[in-house]
Amino acid sequence: MITSWQRLPVTVRAVISGGVMAAAGTLPWALLASANARYVASVPWAVPVTVLYLWFFWRYARGEGWPAATAAARRTSHRANRLSDDVWGAALFAGMLGLITVVLFQLVMNRLVRLPAQPVDDLAGIPRLTLLFLLIMSAVVSGVVEETSFRGYMQGPIERRHGPVIAILVTGLSFGFAHFTHPEVTLILMPYYLVVAAVYGIITHLTNSIFPAMVLHAGGNLLTSFDLLARGQAEWQASSTPTPLIWETGADASFLLSLLALLFASAASLWAFKGLAQLAGQDLKAVETSG
Prior knowledge:
Blueprint: H1 4-7, H2 10-38, H3 46-61, H4 71-78, H5 85-112, H6 128-162, H7 164-178, H8 190-207, H9 211-231, H10 246-249, H11 253-290
């Protein structure tokens, strides 16, 4: 029997499923972190509670628990497939080059448009040790939950039906809009989220695993959080102080160097992704042959 859910287009089902998983994974952490900042802030008690919750989230997402009828679909959607050491290394290398390209992209964007600031005043009253543990836990939650939700549950089904380009674009837009819950995030930051999502999405597509993107996502979030505290600038900003736009100063040497570096990093990233695709393809053929 075909249910009303199954009558919905694959893309619609994937966006809903991924969105529900993202909310189920991140909202409890947001509430716990906020409560920890208000009550008994000297002890990072929200961290062990979240670790336990994240363990249940991971087990459910990979197909365990009720209902048994959806176990196989959840296991496939989770996309937590093991990789060889060679593919792991190539994926992390390509991902790091991709994220460097994102940083350079933002250097250029910061001279083209006014990017919003990210406030840190709400973190000032949290004890340093508690803040450290909360930032680490926040990065882990983002990496695990968002990659499971967006690159697994959302991108995977769309990719199988419509191909990687449409899947990564739809997932990137959803990934960007999901961050609009932060008051400082506006539509002007959508290109940034699309580029970030493309890096994670391409790696996941080429490896058919969320693990490399999960590590890169968590590590990147942790570095940008520390950078925000240390220098008072958001991950999408080149500087904590307003930078003159090229429409005001002209295309000066600094802008041209940033543009040249962006082109070079983009070419290096494409080369690394091509190498990853070849290596992942060879691994897949080896598995099929041995099977």
